[in-house]
Amino acid sequence: MRSFKKPSILVTAKKNFDGFFKSAFTVDNVIFGFDEGKLKILLIKRNEAPYDNFWALPGYFVKQDEALDDAAQRVLTELTGLKEVYLEQVSSFGAPGRHEFGRVITIAYYSLVKVADFEPHAASIAQEVAWHNVDDIETLAFDHEAIVRVALQRLKLTIRTRPIGFELLPPAFTLTDLQHLYEAIWEIDLEKRNFRKKILSMDLLNDIGRSQKGVAHRPAKLYSFDEARYQELTKGGFNFELKEGKRK
Description:
With 248 residues, this protein is of the alpha+beta class. The protein has helices spanning 9-17, 68-80, 144-158, 175-186, 192-200, 227-236; strands at 24-35, 38-46, 55-56, 59-61, 88-93, 104-112, 126-133, 188-189, 205-211, 221-225, 246-247. The strands form three sheets. Strands 1, 2, 3, 4, 5, 6 and 7 form a seven-stranded mixed β-sheet that branches. The protein has a two-stranded antiparallel ribbon with strand order 8-11. A two-stranded antiparallel ribbon has the order 9-10.
């Protein structure tokens, strides 16, 4: 009588789960900057199908042996040249059909950087890399417009509970510069007196004893962030609620 070996539990389990191991993972990075009074986002122009020649977020596939956070840093560096950027997970996007080649789930990250601190350069699947005004973004590859909207909403909520500016403004700035930053993110015009009263009450800024130079109008005072106080508010949080201004 012939004897048959029963398949091992591991083999049986593998067969049961084969259908669940046919997905791929990517990471996409939403990198915000602030320049010339405008909120910017860093985009690449793809040179690979699908969406060849479309602007897109800097993103690509996660390697099999790679942690998600490591993949986000690697992909950002490979496509844009940006290194050592603090990245925070925003959300995942996995709707069926979001990628033409199969089921691809992406993990989105975002960050705030000073535009002047980086010189992006295109490589790998990026034929171009450039800063774009968030307001001017039109059609992006895949579902990247939806990813940008979610990251922007996160940013809008974040600046109500954590200070924003240290990552985006130059070392010396005016109160108007700071107000324009908040206005660009919230997409509203804030009342000048109310904003200044609120921001100065936090003891977050240092008057550096200098004013603007080479401007046509009356030179404004220059300020810097008190880094210790900034970190304290970042960790502990605060409530930066203002009377709503006019929508832009």
